[in-house]
Structures are given as C-alpha cells and as structure tokens.
Amino acid sequence: MNKDYFKQVKEYAGQLGYTITYDNAQEGLLMVNDEKEGIAHLMLGVSFPMLIIEKFIGELSQPSLHVYQQLLQKNRDIVHGAFVLDETGKRILFRDTLQLENLDLNELESAIGSLGLLLSEYGTTLNGFCQ
Fold this sequence. Notes:
Radius of gyration: 15 Å
Number of strands: 6
Number of domains: 1
Structural class: alpha+beta
CATH class: Alpha Beta
Distance between the termini: 42 Å
Shape: elongated
Order of helices and strands: HEEEEHEEH
CATH topology: Yope Regulator, Chain: A
Strand content: 25-35%
Helix content: 25-40%
Largest sheet: 6 strands, antiparallel
C-alpha cells in the first residue's frame, strides 16, 4: 500500500466543502460536518482496504422488536449504507464502507449525500426512537 489514502480522503472531503473538525492521520480518522445536509460528527475511518463511514444517530430510549423491525425495513430504502447497532444493542449508527482502491470523489459524495437524504426524510422518526 504505497498510496496515501488518508490524504486522498481528506482532499476529497475538502473538495466537497465538508468542514473537517477532527484530523488524525496516525489513527486514520477524520470527522466532518456538512451543515447544508444537516450532518454533524460524521466519522471517516481510513483503514486499508476500506473507508468506513460512521455516524452516531442516538441511543434507543426503549429497545424493542418494533424499533428493530422499523430500522431493518428502512435499510431497504437506503441507497448507500445502513442502520446498525453497536455491541450493546442500544446505540443506533449509520454505517457505510467503500473500497479505498477505487474510491472517487463522486462515490464519497453519494455515500454522504445518502446519509443527508436519510436524515432529512427519516430524522423525526429516528428522534422518536431515541432518548
């Protein structure tokens, strides 16, 4: 792995107009915000061969089969990424993974744009699930 994928992802984030609020090349982590899309604290983890895109959505106020079912059904509509739960089963995250070797600007923009669209369409419902 000779290519500096972290630098490439950081440059793409800048080109897309995202505000970088955390930057640690050794850890391979960037945190970005996109105010116009309503996205804050989106983590980009560069870990060859993958770029991991992850956003904490909220902690479930009352985990239930109904909530889990709703999240799984919504996953079917999401263009990029999916809802996932952490190991406790109480924290909802949005997560997407992309191949670094073939990553281009449009692919990163589409993945993050999908999250923005999801939050605008489904945010109220998500807020109802969380504390």
